[in-house]
Design a protein that fits this description.
By secondary structure, the chain is of the alpha/beta class. It contains 20 helices and 16 strands. It has 4 domains: 4-133, 3-Layer(aba) Sandwich (Rossmann fold); 140-312, 3-Layer(aba) Sandwich (Rossmann fold), CATH 3.40.50.300; 316-400, Helicase, Ruva Protein, domain 3, CATH 1.10.8; 408-451. Helix 13 packs across helix 15, helix 18 (408-426) packs across helix 19 (431-438) and helix 19 crosses helix 20 (442-451). The protein binds adenosine-5'-triphosphate and magnesium ion. Residues 177-178, 242 line the site of magnesium ion (MG).
Length: 457
C-alpha cells in the first residue's frame, strides 16, 4: 500500500499543484480545502504525513497541527507559510511541526521535505511495531504457572504495575526474577519508555558507579568523553537493578540518595540531573539477613522493599512443572523444527519429582536438551538426563511401586535381600567386589548372606 499524504489548503490552486506533484512521486494523495473535513478524514484513514497551510478560514494551520500532535503524535506535520513570515514558521516549529515550507516553494525542496517526513513516519511505525512485539514477548501473559503462589505473583504484578513504587523481587536463581521485572515494566504506563537493566555483580564498584551515574569528560583516567549513565538512559522508563545484594557500601549510599531525591550528579560532575524513573530491584540473597549482619543498609532496604514480590522455588510449586515443561517443549520444538508432541506420563512424573536446584532455568535447559537430542515423537524417561533419573527420584518411583499398606521392617528386609542378591550377581559372585559396591565390609556382607539364606555358587 502506498503511503498516504493528506494536504489541507483553502487555495484550490495550490491543492491541484501539490496533488499532481506528489502523486507523480507515487504517493497516495488526498487534497482537501476544508480543514474540518480533513480532521474527519484523519479519524477514518491511516495517514502517514500531513501538509497544512497556515492561514485558513474556520481552522488555522496551527489548530490543525495542535490537533494532530494531540491525537496522532506519530504523524509528522509539514506547515506551509507565506513567504517572508518567518515568525509563523518559528512558531509552528515550536509547537511541534516536523518542518515548514515557504510559499512559493521549489519542487525539489518540497519533495525533499516530504521524503524526510515519510522516512520519519516509517521509523515511527517500525518502532511502534517493535514496541508491540516487546510487549507481546515480555508481557505478563508469558509468565507460566497455575500454582497458588504464582497466581499471587501475577496479582502482585497487576497491582504494582500502574504505580511508580519501587519493587523488590526476591527468589532463588532461575526462578524468573528478570521475567517478572520486565512484565512489570511492560504492563505499566511506562511501557513505551526504556527498560534498562544493570547487573550490579557484573562490574567492579568503580566501573559500576560510572555505569549507573555516568561521568564527565576527564573525571578519571580513561574518561575521554562525557558518558550518560543508566539512570539517565532509563528516564521515562524503568531501571532494573539486578543482584542488588552485591552493591558496595559506598554505592548503597548513593543509590539511596537517587531513590529519595530522583536526582544525582555524574561522576566528576557538579550539575544535578533529575530523572523520572521507576526502580525495580532483584536479588537471590536474603537481604534481611544482610541488614542484620550490617552488610546492607537498613534505610536502603526499606526504600527498595516498598512492594515485595517473592518468587517461590520450583520445588515448592511442583504443579507448575508439567505446564512449564510443555511450554518449553513447544518453544524448542518449534525453534528446532522437530515434530515432538509431548512427554510420556512417566517422564512428567520424574520431572515433577525432581528438586530443581536451578529452578525454571534448569528445567528450561533440560527440556531444550531433550528436544535437541530426541528423535522420537514422545519424550520418555530414557531421554531425560541422568541427574533427573537418578537418586532420590529413583527411590521415590521404586517406593511408588510398593503397596500402600506395608510392614516397614519386613519390607526393608526384603529390599535389603534383593539389593544384596543384585550386588552379588553384578560382581560375578566375587564377595569383595559386591561388598565394595554396597559400601559395606566383607564380613557384614557375609553376615547378610547368612541372614537371608543366600548362597554363593
Ligand atoms: N514462570 C515462568 N514462565 C515461563 N518462563 C519462565 C518462568 N520463570 C522463569 N522462566 C524462564 O526461565 C529463565 C530464567 O528466568 P530469569 O532469568 O527471569 O530468572 P532469575 O530469577 O532472574 O535468575 P538469576 O537469579 O539466575 O538471574 C528465563 O528463560 C525465563 O524466561
Ligand atoms: Mg536474573
Amino acid at each position: 500500500m502506498a503511503e498516504q499524504i493528506l494536504i489541507i489548503d483553502d487555495e484550490k490552486n495550490y491543492l491541484l499543484i501539490l496533488d499532481a506533484l506528489l502523486s507523480d512521486k507515487g504517493w497516495n494523495v488526498t487534497a482537501l480545502s476544508d480543514p474540518e473535513t480533513a480532521l474527519d478524514f484523519l479519524e477514518e484513514s491511516e495517514v502517514d504525513v500531513v501538509i497544512t497551510d497556515m492561514k485558513m478560514p474556520k481552522l488555522s494551520g496551527r489548530q490543525v497541527l495542535e490537533h494532530v500532535r494531540r491525537n496522532y503524535p506519530h504523524i509528522p506535520v509539514l506547515i506551509m507559510t507565506a513567504f517572508g513570515s518567518i515568525e509563523a514558521a518559528v512558531e509552528a516549529m515550536k509547537i511541534g511541526a516536523f518542518d515548514y515550507i515557504a510559499k512559493p516553494f521549489s519542487n525539489d525542496e518540497l519533495i525533499l521535505s516530504v521524503t524526510k517526513a515519510m522516512q520519519f513516519a516509517s521509523t515511527q511505525r517500525q518502532n511502534r511495531i517493535l514496541r508491540e512485539t516487546l510487549v507481546e514477548r515480555y508481557g505478563r501473559h508469558n509468565i507460566i504457572g497455575r500454582s497458588r503462589t504464582m497466581h499471587r505473583v501475577l496479582e502482585m504484578i497487576d497491582r504494582a504495575a500502574p504505580s511508580k513504587s519501587t519493587v523488590l523481587i526476591t527468589g532463588e536463581s532461575g526462578t524468573g526474577k528478570e521475567l517478572v521485572a520486565r512484565a512489570i515494566h511492560f504492563s505499566s504506563p511506562r511501557k513505551d519508555g526504556p527498560f534498562i537493566s544493570v547487573n550490579c555483580m557484573a562490574f567492579n564498584p568503580g566501573v559500576l558507579e560510572s555505569e549507573l551515574f555516568g561521568h564527565e569528560k576527564g573525571s578519571f583516567t580513561g574518561a575521554v568523553a562525557r558518558k550518560r549513565g543508566r539512570f539517565e538512559l532509563a528516564h521515562g522508563g524503568t531501571l532494573f537493578l539486578d543482584e542488588i545484594g552485591e552493591l558496595s557500601h559506598d554505592l548503597q549510599i548513593k543509590l539511596l540518595r537517587v531513590i529519595q531525591e530522583r536526582r544525582f550528579e555524574r561522576v566528576g560532575g557538579v550539575e544535578p540531573i533529575e530523572v523520572d524513573i521507576r526502580v525495580v530491584a532483584a536479588t537471590n540473597k536474603d537481604l534481611q539477613a544482610a541488614v542484620a549482619d550490617g552488610s546492607f543498609r537498613e534505610d536502603l532496604f526499606y526504600r527498595l522493599n516498598v512492594v515485595r514480590i517473592e518468587l517461590p522455588p520450583l520445588r515448592e510449586r511442583r504443579e507448575d512443572v508439567p505446564l512449564l515443561a510443555a511450554h518449553f517443549l513447544d518453544k524448542y520444538a518449534t525453534e528446532n523444527q522437530k515434530p515432538i508432541k509431548g512427554f510420556s506420563p512417566e517422564s512428567i512424573d520424574y520431572l515433577s519429582a525432581f528438586d530443581w536446584p536451578g529452578n525454571v532455568r534448569q528445567l528450561e535447559n533440560v527440556v531444550e536438551r531433550c528436544v535437541v537430542l530426541s528423535d522420537t515423537e514422545t519424550i520418555g524417561v530414557e531421554d531425560l538426563p541422568p541427574e533427573i533419573r537418578d537418586e532420590e527420584t529413583q527411590y521415590k518411583s521404586a517406593v511408588d511401586l510398593l503397596p500402600a499398606t506395608i510392614n516397614l521392617s519386613e519390607t526393608l528386609e526384603k529390599i535389603e535381600a534383593a539389593l544384596v542378591r543384585r550386588a552379588l550377581v553384578r560382581s560375578n559372585f566375587v564377595q569383595v567386589k559386591a561388598a565394595e559396591s554396597l559400601g559395606v565390609s566383607k564380613s557384614l556382607l557375609q553376615y547378610k548372606l547368612k541372614k537371608y539364606g543366600l548362597s554363593v555358587p
